[in-house]
Design brief:
Structural class: alpha/beta
Number of helices: 6
Bound molecules: ribulose-5-phosphate
Distance between the termini: 24 Å
C-alpha cells in the first residue's frame, strides 16, 4: 500500500471515534485532510468542529461542516490529528505542518486524543524528525541559542521557495531543531515550555495521544 492509502485507511478507522451530537476537534496535515473528507460523509451526526488551523477550517467549511471558535465551546469530545513521530506510549512530535500551537490548545480541551498515522511515524526514540518550536519573532535568535545549548541544531523555517521566515496562523515563526535524541520527552517539553519567547513546542508528551491508529500493510493497528 502507498503512504496515502495507509493515511486513508486510518482516516476511515478514526470515524468510529467520532461521538454523535458532539463537537469534534480536527487536526492539520495530509492525514487530517483524509479524515476531514471522511467526516464530511457523516457530518449530519455531529454538532460541529473546532479546527486547529486556518487550512483545516477552510477544508471543513468547504465540505459544509460547521466550524466553531474555541471560545464559544466548553467541551470537545475527541481530537483527531496526525503526527510526525509517535512512540509506543503515545508521545508525539507534531508541527511539521506548522499548526502545533493551535493543535496543542485544541487537544488540551478535548476529552480524548486519537492520533492517526501511517506506520512510518512509529519510533522508539523521537528526534529524527526535527522538533518544531513556535516562537515570537523578537525571541528567534535568543531561543535558537538556547536550543543549540541543549545540543540541537536549530534552523528557522522559511516560506517555500523564499528566504523569508514562514509565518504561522498566529503570527509566530517556526524553529526546526535537528539532532535531538529525545529520551525524556516529558522533561524536554517542560524545559522548553519555560523558555521566554517560546509560544509552543511540538512535543506532545505531557498530554500525548490516548489512542493511536497506525496504518500498516497488515491493516490498521490500534495502540492504546
Ligand atoms: C501539523 C502536524 C501534522 O499532524 C503532522 O505534520 C503530520 O502531517 P501529515 O499527516 O501530513 O504527515 O502536526 O502541524
Amino acid at each position: 500500500m502507498t503512504q496515502d492509502e495507509l493515511k486513508q485507511a486510518v482516516a476511515v478507522a478514526a470515524i468510529q471515534y467520532v461521538v454523535d451530537g458532539e463537537i469534534i476537534g480536527v487536526g492539520t496535515g495530509s492525514t487530517a485532510n483524509f479524515f476531514i473528507d471522511e467526516l464530511a460523509k457523516i457530518k449530519h451526526r455531529i454538532k460541529g468542529t473546532v479546527a486547529s488551523s486556518e487550512a483545516t477550517a477552510a477544508r471543513l467549511r468547504g465540505h459544509g461542516i460547521d466550524v466553531f471558535d474555541l471560545n464559544d465551546v466548553t467541551a470537545i469530545a475527541v481530537y483527531i490529528d496526525g503526527a510526525d513521530e509517535i512512540t509506543h506510549s503515545g508521545a508525539m512530535i507534531k508541527g511539521g505542518g506548522a499548526a502545533l500551537t493551535r493543535e496543542k490548545i485544541v487537544a488540551s480541551v478535548s476529552a480524548k486524543f486519537v492520533c492517526i498515522a501511517d506506520g512510518s511515524k512509529l519510533v522508539d526514540v523521537m528526534g529524527k524528525f526535527p522538533l518544531p518550536v513556535e516562537v515570537l519573532p523578537m525571541a528567534r535568535a535568543a531561543v535558537m541559542r538556547k536550543l543549540a545549548a541543549l545540543g540541537g541544531q536549530p534552523k528557522l523555517r522559511l516560506k517555500a521557495g523564499s528566504d523569508q521566515a514562514f509565518i504561522t496562523d498566529n503570527g509566530g515563526e517556526i524553529i526546526d531543531v535537528a539532532g535531538l535524541s529525545i529520551t525524556d520527552p516529558v522533561a524536554l517539553e517542560q524545559d522548553l515550555n519555560q523558555v521566554p519567547g517560546v509560544v509552543a513546542v511540538g512535543l506532545f508528551a505531557l498530554r500525548g495521544a490516548d489512542v493511536c491508529l497506525l496504518g500498516t500493510s497488515d491493516g490498521v493497528k490500534t495502540l492504546t
